[in-house]
Design goal:
With 249 residues, the chain is of the alpha+beta class. Helices cover 51% and strands 22% of the residues. Strands 1, 2, 5, 6 and 7 form a 5-stranded antiparallel beta sheet that branches. A 3-stranded mixed beta sheet has the order 3-4-8, with helices on one face.
Amino acid sequence: MQANRRNNKRAAFPARRQSNSKAFILFALISLCAVGYYLWSARKAAEAKTAKAELDLGLEAARMVGAKFEKAAAVKVGVIKGKVVAKAEFKGRIFTPTQESLFPVTVDYFINLDRMGKEAYHWNARNGTLTIDMPDVTVAKPNIDEGAAIIRQHGSFISREAALAMARQVSVRAEAKSRAFAYDPKNMTKARENARTVVTNLALQPLKAAGMTNVRVAVSFPWEPKTYLNQPSQQWDRSRRPEEVIEGR
């Protein structure tokens, strides 16, 4: 009998050990799952917090730049000076005098920043870049300095009628030449390069003043490729206020 009891006890010990081992493994699995879920939740919460902070930064940067541009309105971004030559002639009954005039010309170029809405600002959280879609430069009416003009007239006899007629011709042709000078591709390119620099610096002023030194500014003209369209970018819903968008996200 005693021998049988000893044998029964010995047989029970492995069963208890096996049961304890299974319980330990189950507990370990549950613990690992709980820890994994906690870490996953913490990571998602951190990512959401980071995404919200990045969106807040982009919205605030766009708001500050927009407020700056509204006050700036039309900003002069360049002045180009040059000279144009206008010629004229007067066909009289006997004589045909001619006139050639050299006029100094000054052309101002502007950017109308106050017309830009929220759709002009695009925030890329990945590289911290605020892209600004700005309008093309506006060309002001050329300023022709007639007082500093160099006038040369040729002809054996120039009547008062001929002088007045040639002066009118020269004036009209000088205006046409000045417009052509203002819209010359080389001058337009130079004005746009100046505009890009001026607008970028103007946008960086309020950002640097607010300590947003980690925000980059890129300027894009209407005809240029929109690189932000191929990048993960964030733009607030224009039908809602920025605060509502932030809260919703």
